[in-house]
């Protein structure tokens, strides 16, 4: 029995080598981005792999030429609002799909899942015309409205809610709580890992969103970080050191969010209920 356990726990050297190679391959773009932020543009083009002494000059150039503060604020404001509204609406929908009984809800869920197969490019023009006629261009509402309800998040909350104890809801109803009180005081605390995982995914998608902000945010004062970074490549000459510095700053919020909430993210993805 002991020999069997040892054989199961042992791992051949080539498997460790393969895992290390995959990790290095995955981390290398991030390493190159950070190193390039400390080098001149010519060094970045030449593929220099070691840190340089041009970081402070890149920071100075960024302060003088790039509206980095405004871009960060626009991204943070719109992404936080989108995340809060999306989690609230989609969690209510997922809660309703699981808790309430209706013979047509499975058909409705299938239709929602089919909508995930529709590419954004096919609805981009109708969305623009609709938002333009509603005077929602260059507004925060115009940014967040198409993403408030997504089929993926509704399906995600519904699947995780299958492990939710229905008897708890029935007991809360007996105690006199209405449905919204049950959602806030019973469902939300128990399903907090699922909410955390959904918030991380929604925040990352909103923060990195490029196509829809490019369409709806037409003024310079409303541009988010992806648009600010893309604008650095619009000229005849691109300063790649400055570009990599701005990209590094842009990735920091998502990295901090993921690593601080990594445990809750894993719990939510695996469907844990506490």
What is the gist of this entry?
The chain is an all-alpha fold and 274 residues long.
Report the mean per-residue pLDDT as an integer: 85
Number of strands: 0
Question: How does the overall form come out from the CA principal axes?
Answer: globular
- Give start-end ranges of low-pLDDT stretches: 1-8
Query: Which structural category fits the helices and strands?
Result: mainly alpha
Largest sheet: none
Please give the share of residues in helix.
over 70%
Strand share of the residues?
Answer: under 5%
What can you tell me about this protein's structure?
With 274 residues, the chain is mainly alpha-helical. It contains 16 helices and no strands. It has helices at 2-9, 13-36, 41-46, 55-65, 68-99, 105-115, 120-133, 140-144, 151-161, 166-174, 179-190, 192-208, 211-216, 225-231, 240-260, 262-269. The longest helix has 32 residues, at 68-99. The radius of gyration is 23 Å and the shape is globular. Mean pLDDT is 85; it is low at 1-8.
Please outline the helices and strands.
Blueprint: H1 2-9, H2 13-36, H3 41-46, H4 55-65, H5 68-99, H6 105-115, H7 120-133, H8 140-144, H9 151-161, H10 166-174, H11 179-190, H12 192-208, H13 211-216, H14 225-231, H15 240-260, H16 262-269
Helix pairs in contact: 2-15, 4-15, 5-9, 5-12, 5-14, 10-11, 12-16
């Amino acid at each position: 029995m002991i020999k069997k356990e040892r054989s199961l726990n042992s791992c051949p050297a080539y498997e460790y080598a393969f895992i290390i190679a995959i990790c290095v391959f995955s981390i290398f773009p991030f390493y190159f981005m950070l190193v390039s932020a400390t080098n001149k543009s010519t060094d970045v083009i030449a593929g220099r792999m070691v840190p340089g002494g041009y970081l402070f000059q890149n920071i100075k150039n960024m302060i003088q030429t790039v509206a980095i503060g405004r871009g960060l604020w626009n991204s943070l404001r719109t992404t936080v609002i989108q995340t809060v509204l999306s989690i609230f609406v989609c969690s209510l929908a997922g809660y309703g799909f699981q808790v309430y009984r209706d013979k047509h809800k499975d058909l409705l869920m299938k239709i929602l899942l089919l909508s995930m197969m529709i590419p954004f490019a096919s609805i981009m023009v109708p969305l623009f015309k609709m938002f333009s006629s509603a005077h929602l261009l260059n507004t925060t509402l115009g940014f967040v409205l198409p993403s408030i309800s997504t089929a993926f998040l509704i399906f995600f909350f519904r699947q995780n809610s299958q492990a939710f104890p229905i008897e708890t809801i029935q007991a809360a109803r007996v105690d006199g709580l209405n449905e919204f009180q049950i959602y806030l005081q019973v469902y939300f605390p128990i399903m907090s890992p699922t909410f955390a995982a959904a918030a991380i995914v929604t925040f990352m998608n909103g923060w990195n969103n490029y196509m829809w902000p490019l369409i709806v945010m037409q003024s310079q004062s409303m541009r988010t970080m992806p648009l600010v970074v893309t604008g650095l490549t619009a000229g005849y000459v691109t300063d790649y050191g400055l570009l990599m510095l701005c990209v590094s700053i842009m990735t920091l919020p998502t990295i901090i969010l993921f690593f601080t909430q990594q445990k809750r993210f894993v719990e939510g993805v695996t469907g844990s209920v506490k």
